[in-house]
């Protein structure tokens, strides 16, 4: 007959002796299953194989004898009393049950780790979705701000155009008041080079057919401006638009500009500035050239 202690059972199942003794001691010698739980739980600890300091006379993995405990039986009491004596067959059966228990604990541990891995993956995907949603919200906010900025710029441009038109209307009213309404009679003067042909069969249809004209203005630096004006607006409106939009020139104040027609070549005078665009032959479209006006 062979005696099988808890320590021997753990060693029989393949656990190192030092680990088995440490597990039994730290679990208070509550049995093989408690020791196995500890071993499975602390398998990856870096200090799992470090020896555990124990009181003098106490052997790791064994229950203290009555003489070590100082019990009422005192020294010399039978130390073997109550210890199980197993046959070889029973010992093998117990080892088999312990190995099955180890396998079960290992499966439980693997299942727990798998659940934890799934949970970590779920959390990672959730964080990824939240990050993607936050990035999308940021892009939408940027697009909304860009659209608002474009609307604001367009509103400012329309407001600037409106101010130009209002200034032109005020200038017209002031000139009409200053000259007693004689300004409106100037378009009836004799035709000048480059004006619309005076043929009765062509001029009336031009006035009736076109109420707007598209003017392209070429600046001295090679750039150009394009704007649509009413056919009855004066050429001064075009000059004012150019002065407001031609940009700053290096070297100080802006010089006054002079408008020229491309073909036939013609320089428009101050008197021409008071004439409607359609009377100057600039309807429905025309190309004008800006030259610096030499001061008199």
TrEMBL record:
- Start-end of Basic and acidic residues biased regions: 80-122, 137-177
Report whether Cytoplasm shows up as a keyword of the record.
yes
- Where does this polypeptide localize? Cytoplasm
Q: Does the keyword Coiled coil apply?
A: yes
Q: Name one GO cellular component term.
A: cytoplasm
GO molecular function terms listed in the Swiss-Prot or TrEMBL record: K48-linked polyubiquitin modification-dependent protein binding
Primary place of residence?
Answer: cytoplasm
**Record Gene3D superfamilies:** DNA helicase RuvA subunit, C-terminal domain, Phosphatidylinositol 3-kinase Catalytic Subunit, Chain A, domain 1
Listed A to Z, the keywords are: Coiled coil, Cytoplasm
Task: For the region Disordered, give the residue spans.
Answer: 40-212
Residues of the UBX domain: 208-290
Composition bias (Acidic residues) maps to 42-52
Q: Where is the composition biased (Low complexity)?
A: 180-201
Biological process (GO) annotations held by this record are: negative regulation of proteasomal ubiquitin-dependent protein catabolic process; negative regulation of protein K48-linked deubiquitination; negative regulation of protein ubiquitination
Question: Could you tell me which residue ranges the UBA domain spans?
Answer: 1-42
Top-level taxon in the UniProt lineage: Eukaryota
How is this protein named in the record? UBX domain-containing protein 1
Q: Which organism is it from?
A: Pipistrellus kuhlii
């Amino acid at each position: 007959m062979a005696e099988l202690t808890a320590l021997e059972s753990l060693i029989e199942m393949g656990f190192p002796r030092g680990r088995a003794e440490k597990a039994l001691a730290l679990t208070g010698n509550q049995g093989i299953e408690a020791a196995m739980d500890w071993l499975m739980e602390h398998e990856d600890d870096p200090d799992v194989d470090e020896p555990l300091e124990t009181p003098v006379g106490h052997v790791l993995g064994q229950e203290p004898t009555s003489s070590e405990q100082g019990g009422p039986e005192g020294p010399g009491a039978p130390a073997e009393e109550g210890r199980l004596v197993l046959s070889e067959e029973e010992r093998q059966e117990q080892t088999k049950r312990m190995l099955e228990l180890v396998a079960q604990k290992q499966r439980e541990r693997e299942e727990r780790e798998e659940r934890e891995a799934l949970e970590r993956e779920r959390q990672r995907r959730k964080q990824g979705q939240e990050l993607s949603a936050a990035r999308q919200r940021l892009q939408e906010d940027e697009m909304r701000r860009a659209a608002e900025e474009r609307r604001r710029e367009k509103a400012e441009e329309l407001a600037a155009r409106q101010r130009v038109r209002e200034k032109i209307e005020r200038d017209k009213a002031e000139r009409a008041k200053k000259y007693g309404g004689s300004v409106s009679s100037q378009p009836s003067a004799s035709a000048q080079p480059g004006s619309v042909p005076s043929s009765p069969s062509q001029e009336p249809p031009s006035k009736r057919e076109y109420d707007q004209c598209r003017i392209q203005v070429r600046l001295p630096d090679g750039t150009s401006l394009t704007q649509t004006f009413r056919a009855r607006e004066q050429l001064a409106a075009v000059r004012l638009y150019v002065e407001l939009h031609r940009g700053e020139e290096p070297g100080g104040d802006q010089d006054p500009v002079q408008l020229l027609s491309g073909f036939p070549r013609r320089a428009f005078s101050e008197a021409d500035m008071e004439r409607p665009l359609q009377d100057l032959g600039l309807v429905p479209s025309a190309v004008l050239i800006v030259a610096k006006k030499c001061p008199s």
